[in-house]
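dude i think i finally got it to work??
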Amino acid sequence: MFEIFTQLEQSAPTYNALVLTLSGLAGVLLGIFLWLGGSLFARTSTAVVCFLLVAGIGVFFVESLASVGIGLMASVVAMVFKRLSTALLVSVLVAFMVFLAACQYTDVSAQATKDKAFMEPSFSLAKEGTELSVLETYEDLKLVVAEISRASRRIGKTLEMKYQVVVGITGFFVFLIGCVLQGLANATSCATSGTLLIWGGMLLMLLPKGVLPLTGLIRQADTSVVVMCAMIAVGTLEQLLFCSRPKGKDKDKKAPSGKKG
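look at this
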């Protein structure tokens, strides 16, 4: 995985800087909104995050229009079945954070020596001194994301059974809690997705500058996970305290209008 990110950093200066910068800026702005106040518009926030999650991942594996269509269907389902969708979303996000934390305690070097392809990226990098177009940048990033996905699955298989159980049990119980405590689920899902978008957006904006942000992030992975968890905790607490709406507020407003006549 480290070699994939290293080669991505080496090829990033040849990518279309506008694509990375605008995508990163959009991610940061949306992330800040979700992190600070996404639960004020919980239904819409859940639909947007589901769309980004499904369409954003699908665009690298299927045609662009198909991924957008699948993302729209996922967002519609999320708005109709808000309680279950929010619980599922927060369970996936929290389980992902637990997976990142568990990776810090897993040594993949032994597996890498057995499987040479484990740490050797198969995507073709752009040649130095060239500048890729928007379409070429998109196609090259598709190969990078596909390689990261393959490496992540391999890393997941190398996790000790106890860590796999922890990730699975965490996701299951978070799903149950999310079904019961909707306010907490809304705040946590918004804070978690906002934190991930902020970090991902900043990394995208830094990549064209040639400052090697991924290398520094991986070398300080344990600290990074702690900071991300702290941001999630702060965002969740802030939204629970300042962004919660009284349950009967809307009903009280509608009651007088229903008595007219």
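Residues 134-158 form the longest helix (25 residues).
im so relieved honestly
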